Amino acid sequence: MSDPLPSKASAAEAWFAARGWQPHAFQRDVWAAMAAGRSGLLHATTGSGKTYAVWMGALARLQARPGLQVLWLTPMRALASDTTKALAVPLADLAPQAAVGQRTGDTPSAERARQERKPPAALVTTPESLSLMLTRDDAPQALAGTHTVIVDEWHELVGNKRGVQVQLALARLGRWNPGLVVWGLSATLGNLDEAMAALVGSRPATLVRGRLDKQLVIDTLLPAEPGRFSWGGHLGAQMQQPVVDEIERQWRAGGTTLVFTNVRSQAEIWYQLLLQARPDWAGQIALHHGSLDKSVRDWVEAGLKAGTLIAVVATSSLDLGVDFLPVERVLQLGSAKGVARLLQRAGRSGHAPGRASRVTLVPTHTLELVEAAAARRSALAGRVESRTPPSKPLDVLVQHLVTVALGGGFTPEALYDEVRMAPSYAALTREEFDWALAFVEHGGASLAAYPEYHRVQRDEAGVYRVPDRGIAKRHRLQVGTITSDASMQVKWLGSGGTIGTIEEGFIARLKAGDCFVFAGRVLEYVRTQDMAAYVRKATKNKGIVPAWAGGRMPLSSELADAVQVMLEGASQGDFLEPEMQCARPMLEAQARLSRLPARGRLLVEEFRSREGQHLFLYPFAGRNVHIGLAQLIAWRLAKAAPNTFSLSVNDYGLEVLAAVPFDLDDAALAALWSGRGLLDDVLASLNSGELAQRRFREIARVAGLVFSGYPGAPKSLRQLQASSSLFYEVFRKYDSGNRLLGQAEGEVLSQELELERLRTTLARLATLPAERVTLCTPSPFALPLMIERLREQLSTEKLKDRLDRLLAEGEAALAADVSPRPRPRRRRVAPT
């Protein structure tokens, strides 16, 4: 090995001193660990200097030789450019002969070719681009000199298949260079030891905590009239002017405001609301989300850095670590649904050592005031959500086998040992590995007759390679694990300029002349041609707002527990926080008409109306779990007596509405969510086969069964769905042991239904006494569930009329001081 460059830790200290900086203790800890050849995880406060902590350590390991030596992985292409610029700053002083490059899906082909001829010493890239580099014929030679890998924002990757993709790439690099040093960076992880182990595997590792006394301010913009009854979106219009006032106040004080929403449709709506209130802000406020064209997003990001924008309404597209120094304030519209997400977004303001980060929560309904107070308590106490890595996803393994076969080839024995070095595959059996190999070699039991699924073949030397250039090209075009519904470009009629992308399913429902809101404009749909939707500026000032898939985030377990603690305090008269004072009228109304939910008992509300019999439960287990629980209850009730049910869920509870009234004693009620055969009943109640078929579409794409099309000629959503559905049916009929089918069913349970959380919830409910209350009118907790259901059934006008009647009945009941009626107990044999 060549001699190291002289840029050791002392040089880093001198470089800091020349700028008037003093290294933090955690930065020195990282430098020492990296110098000793140890891997690790640095968990430090946002804006505290994580980047230079690991980068200086990496520079100290640079060798005076050509070739790629350091890889910096970022989860988002948008971060790559800023990261590259930040890493280049110390090079002139500490490693003048070294260069840092950038390689993502946006990198021009000429630049990629130049990098291959003359690799930079360090390269900023994404997990997908790294996997693509592994498909090169000369990958072992080009990447064998890589001795350091840094994975930024590891919390964004560790809990999903992109993180597994990183693990497999690190196992490959580690095979070529056993001394590989790997470091992860994060500011918002709860399970640090597990997260570090998922990244570094069996390498010697050090966990470095870099918590600094950085001021974090979490407050709430309180509504003037929160009301005694509330529902989703109830406070939206009321909060419009206060949000505008806060943005203006911050701008006059010399700072930009980032306004975060949880979904793109909400971002589009609030951008319009801000412009309605302040039309003079046109051109000075902006919209940013992942469906907008890259040129638009680049313009917005440049405006943020320059400090020329008053405010930007954004989604998670701006969550991660781009430094926007002019941003002094973050507004979170609606609940962040998790402590980690709240901290991540708070860190976008005051993003520099010594500056305070401030996030202000803006409730959209009154119960979010309680969430806000609970989130602040949890954040300041450091109670952050854990992220668990997926366990041996076979679709990612199937893709990786083809990747490695392209990148120099493999022998089964060596690759099996290598794959098991990736922590997610540590428990991979040889039988499972051999199944995946057989699947890519000859298509498994059902695709043997189709040559396009014979993706790898063993040569005379016993090495598996990809023999077909067409297969190789298709594989390289869709390397990665990011999947989404097929999207369609939105273009201007006439000029053909691209505005952004919208999911094809939304465009398919439009007729010529329909207007919709997108990219902060009201657009008129003209026609679809060549997988593009052509539009023009609408003459109307209103339009429908697209709803993107995967919009709703469930409340995290940690935050749900914290909310219940706040409610228990309220039941004891604890309204100390300003948010709790503001929510007090609603909480006291709930206590008068019913009860406040508590952790030691399950509140069950029962109510009869012209619609039928309503059953309300409040497990506080999050939307996904409540979907499974509501389906289970309805299914078990239907087994006992035929009935028609309507269901509604939110993060706090669920409603089961039966058209035909039923009557249950306490034992029969408890039997609805307990007893034997629980998992089988959950699967039966949810039509898990249909859910698994939907999940299989993503698995088929990752595993390379479904090809999404060539550049400029993408396949439509209908084509992709038809292809994946055909494979699903073929495997079910002729290859029932296909492990990708089993994976689809497993992912439905673990991800869509949060099976472990559902199991935990059901076990907890089985131990809780039910506190049954018969309502004379829907309680403040029950009303949002009814409105959620009625929104799907009634027009806006009819919904308003119905809501007005319900509110009038509720206020009348409170005025009459009606007390809740405990359910009388009767003995009855529970249905079996």
Q: How is this structure best described in words?
A:
By secondary structure, the protein is α/β, with parallel strands linked by helices. It has 31 helices and 28 strands. The strands form 6 sheets. A 7-stranded parallel beta sheet has the order 3-4-2-5-6-1-7, sandwiched between helices. It has a 6-stranded parallel beta sheet with strand order 8-13-12-9-11-10, sandwiched between helices. A 6-stranded mixed beta sheet has the order 23-24-22-21-27-28, sandwiched between helices. Helix 14 packs across helix 15, helix 15 packs across helix 21 and helix 21 crosses helix 22. It starts with 8 loop residues before the first helix and ends in a 10-residue tail after the last strand. Mean pLDDT is 88; it is low at 1-7 and 824-832.
Number of strands: 28
Helix coverage percent: 40-55%
Number of helices: 31
Point out poorly predicted stretches. Answer: 1-7, 824-832
What general outline do the C-alpha atoms trace? globular
Mean pLDDT metric: 88
Helix/strand-derived class? alpha/beta
Largest sheet: 7 strands, parallel
Strand content: 15-25%
In spatial order, strands of the major sheet run 3-4-2-5-6-1-7
Rg of Cα set: 28 Å
Report the end-to-end length measured between terminal Cα atoms.
Answer: 73 Å
